[in-house]
Amino acid sequence: MSKEGDQYATTKVQPKDFVSGWVVALIIASTGLSVSTLFLGSEIALNLGLKKALIAFGVSTLVLTIMCMATTLIGNRSRLSTYMILHFSFGEYGAKIVNFIFGVTLVGWFAVALELLAIAIFDTTISTFKVEVSKELIIIVTSVFITITTVYGIRSIEKLANISIPILTGFLIYVFYLSIEKLENPWEQLFNYVPKESTMTLFDATSILVGAAILFPVLMADFSRFVKTDKQSLGAVLGLTIGTPLALILSAVPSITTGEVDIIKIMEQYNLVIPAFLLLFIATWTTNATNLYSASLTFATINKKWSFKLVAILSSVFGTILALLGFAQYLFDFLEFLGILAPSISSIYFIHFFWIKKQKYDLGNLNKWESPALFSWVLSSVITVFTYLEVFELTQAYFIDSFILGGLFYLFFKRKELFFLK
User: Fold this and answer.
1) CATH number of the domain to which 310 belongs
2) Is the residue at 5 inside a domain?
3) 131-138 contact pairs (CB < 8 A, 24+)
4) 386/408 Cα distance (integer angstroms)
5) Is residue 245 a contact partner of residue 53, using CB atoms and an 8 Å limit?
6) d(Cα 345, Cα 402) in Å, to the nearest integer?
7) pLDDT per residue over 378-390, tens digit each?
8) Does the residue 2 lie in any domain?
9) What is the pTM of this model?
10) Residue 346: which residues within 8 A CB-CB, separation 6 or more?
11) Quick check: is 13 in a domain?
């Protein structure tokens, strides 16, 4: 297989395949336009009110942007995938452990998106055609077609998404406008909205949003390795900085004006069910095919003897079972769990690249195990579990605890190399 054919999975990206940072920024921004992201924006706005929701959107985006700015430079300067970067910092076998967790996470997102897509189809068939179809049947059928798409036709559906996502953005902006237009004093009414009794706090919402996108800082190198320059790779982060809060706001305002979380039920009130459904269907189908594709590639790195098709099918089956069991109801807990495990990985490989390896990676010098990184990750995760459970507090934000602790432990274990005391 050529280096280009495997997307430079284990080699450095060559200059002929470099792209503009704006291209990558648009790709990143498009990931926010999925049913799951729109659901989060709606749910948080209805639980907190617009004022606090905007604070949660802003703080979570700031935290993720700072993390992404750190790791995007590693991808741009090393020209290597996250998979290979983890090999250097965690070792060959350690990277497989981390990749397994990434794979499980992506399957979890596959299950959530599959379930939310099934709900959208279910609501559309009832509201438009007055026909009730079993949600379980919808989940199984859509899973089969998404799996076929992933294995055989993901490139064609991605081309379709390149057209549908800009249209969907424009459509959501139009719905946002309709939501404001129906109010006499829109901004006053929106900001004075009092949510129903809710147990969700501002910190809970911020944590959930950080968890929802926490893999971006870890996997940012997969995008930035293709970008031409450092400056442009930092610009690519704007895809998250602007795109994610925009998607959240575009879902939050219509939800407050209608009192609905379900995007299809919101569209019912504007007589826009069919166009909304078609656009969301294509966007979510693409996103979920990409989730399954990424999960399958990740699992395939654990054992190279496993075929991609077999891994994709098994991943799909597992994700479908989760969806049938109602995994979406555990979405917030799932996202908070990611906020415990993932941030420390970013800080560890950031320190390893800039301070330990001095920005130089030698593909011919890879170890089987890198125990300092693994110990740092495990220790920081264990302690962060206690700060998450509020047994004690450090920074009062457990995802920041994870990031800082991972780095501090790694610096301690690597102190001899760092201070040239070998």
Assistant:
1) 1.10.4160.10
2) no
3) 136/324
4) 17
5) no
6) 9
7) 999 999 999 999 9
8) no
9) 0.88
10) 67, 70, 71, 217, 218, 403, 406
11) no
